[in-house]
Amino acid sequence: MLNLSGKNALVTGIANKHSIAWGIAQQLHKAGANIGVTYLPDERGKMEKKVAELVEPLTPSLFLPCNVQNDEQIQSTFETIRDQWGRIDILIHCLAFANKDDLSGDFSQTSRSGFKTALEISTYSLVQLSGAAKPLMTEGGSIITLTYLGGVRAIPNYNVMGVAKAGLEASVRYLAAELGPQNIRVNAISAGPIRTLASSAVGGILDMIHHVEQVAPLRRTVTQQEVGNTAAFLSSDLASGITGQVLYVDAGYEIMGM
Ligand code: NAD
Ligand code: 0WE
């Protein structure tokens, strides 16, 4: 059965109890993985305190600041992993950011800097974290990122994030091709809409969730736990033949036409 004991898993992207990354961390912990957590530091240390309290029940053996716009923080995260763990088996990339102004209105008005920000944080970070993890995945590994249907369809207001997710999904394929010979698998989970800090800041998210509840084959949305279970599966040897893929965890919404 699903068993992650003896595996070291780094989880990025936990901001609060609604975060998809929190759902994933809990399922990895349940399956027996040793957990490391990174958080996005702020000046007042509020995020550090909040995330530390949340993840305490998982008894993480690493808890590190990692802003993916900061090369030194990424480097020091993986130096600590090398020194403390010696090896990493599972990397969860669960973060995204675009300027709020760029998530509504005309896509053609996206600024150069807004485009850069969205793709740097949401797309390039997967490439960079994977490159840093590669030399430490000495017994193979599993890298998992989170994407959204807006990367393959034009979803109102998702705009520059859709371009970032398209790039993210392509990056999954190129990383899978490069890292496969080292038995490192790279996959994306395409989650249906879930109320989180990031999605709640978006106008109309409740209408979108309501729409999915009407149309998706399962007539509901998915939970952080369901995404977490899929991440635990993809992290495990049960998924040893799966790499370079985008798995939809969306109650079936993606298959529907009219
Ligand atoms: P969330 O707000 O809980 O998580 C986003 C995380 O990104 C936060 O923890 C935040 O701290 C982190 N982050 C932002 N900028 C960062 C930076 N510069 N460095 C490091 N971390 C940074 O929201 P979520 O919905 O759980 O989002 C997690 C992932 O799931 C994202 O990739 C998102 O695109 C994806 N996703 C979300 C949904 C949804 O409906 N909520 C659906 C499909 C995919
Ligand atoms: O990937 C996401 C959320 C991404 C996101 C959200 C925000 C809001 C707050 C990235 N950056 C920011 N920046 C902010 O300042 N999702 C899949 C959730 C989501 O976001 C949407 C959606 C859905 C679904 C935006 C527009 C339309 C639909």
Question: What does this 3D model show about the protein?
Answer:
By secondary structure, this protein is α/β, with parallel strands linked by helices. The protein has one domain: NAD(P)-binding Rossmann-like Domain (Rossmann fold), CATH 3.40.50. Helix content is 41%, strand content 14%. The protein contains 8 helices and 7 strands. Strands 3-2-1-4-5-6-7 form a 7-stranded parallel β-sheet, with helices on both faces. α1 packs across α8. The N and C termini lie far apart (38 Å). The model has no long low-confidence stretch (mean pLDDT 98). The chain binds nicotinamide-adenine-dinucleotide and ligand 0WE. Nicotinamide-adenine-dinucleotide binds next to α1, β5 and α6.
**Secondary-structure class:** alpha/beta
Number of helices: 8
Give the CATH H-level superfamily.
NAD(P)-binding Rossmann-like Domain
- Helicity range of the residues? 40-55%
Biggest sheet, open or closed, and with what strands and sense? 7 strands, parallel
CA-based shape: globular
User: What's the total number of strands?
Assistant: 7
Mind telling me which CATH architecture this is? 3-Layer(aba) Sandwich
By CATH reckoning, the class would read Alpha Beta
Domain count, please report it: 1
Q: Using only CA atoms, what is the Rg?
A: 17 Å
